[in-house]
Amino acid sequence: FQQAEAIENVAATLQFDGGAETTSFSGNSLSEDLGAVLEILADALRNPAFPQDQLEKARDELITNAKIADENTSVVASRTANEFLYPMGHPYHLYPIGNETSLRSITRDDLASFHSARYGPGSTTLALVGDVDPRAAVDLVKRGYTVATNTGTIAYGNPANAYDLSNWDVFIVPEPNTKFTAAESIAFFNY
Question: pLDDT at position 187, please?
């Protein structure tokens, strides 16, 4: 709750939302409080707490949602279609929120392991919009990360290339209207 208190102290907002394939976050603040908000966001992403009481609350809500879904013929039909269309092991084969058995089996350590493997600068896209000085924002984002600024040909999977995205935690494109080659677009997609 320290993060919530810190956000409240600067009269800002910061929300997280999770979907089947993505997690998003959004916030609002005064431009002069951007640094504080980015620090709180970075702390939340780097040091998730996963308190047991909140885990149990979320688990109960998801179990209720799964039971409700089991009574919805449209959801049951969609889930059954996915089981036929996608082979076992494919992420779409299973229902995204799981079922009561799978939800009860998830532990705090499972969440921490999942977070550690999938959340971080290499899998995060950050867009800042509003009354933000781009250079100052870049400096704020650079804190604590290895950062590259695009001045060469962007690639992915060729670590010998200085601008291969696999070499960087954060890669900054300072000009939003930059046109990328097809290969560079694929590199961003793979990043």
Answer: 73
According to DSSP H, which parts of 47-159 are helical? 52-70, 73-85, 100-105, 108-118, 134-142
Question: Do 27 and 12 form a contact (C-beta atoms < 8 A)?
Answer: yes
Distance CA 119, CA 117 (A): 6
Q: Give the tens place of pLDDT for each residue, 137-163.
A: 777 776 645 444 545 666 667 777 666
Nearest Cα neighbor of 5 from 42, 45, 36, 46 is: 36
Q: Is 111 helix (H, G, I), strand (E, B) or coil?
A: helix
Given CA atoms 32, 35, 41, 43 in this order, what sign does their dihedral have?
Answer: negative
For the cut 70, the answer to whether the pLDDT of residue 13 exceeds it is: yes
Distance, in Å, from the CA atom of 41 to the CA atom of 128, rounded to the nearest integer, reads: 13
**Which among 169, 180, 190, 183 has a CA at the least distance from the CA of 126?**
169
Instruction: Give 66-73's long-range contacts (Cβ < 8 A, gap of 24+).
Output: 66/95, 66/97, 66/98, 66/99, 66/100, 66/103, 67/100, 69/95, 69/97
Cα Rg of the chain (Å, integer): 20
Q: What is the pTM of this model?
A: 0.65
What is the per-residue pLDDT across 49-70, written as a single tens digit (0 to 9) for each?
A: 899 999 999 999 999 999 999 9
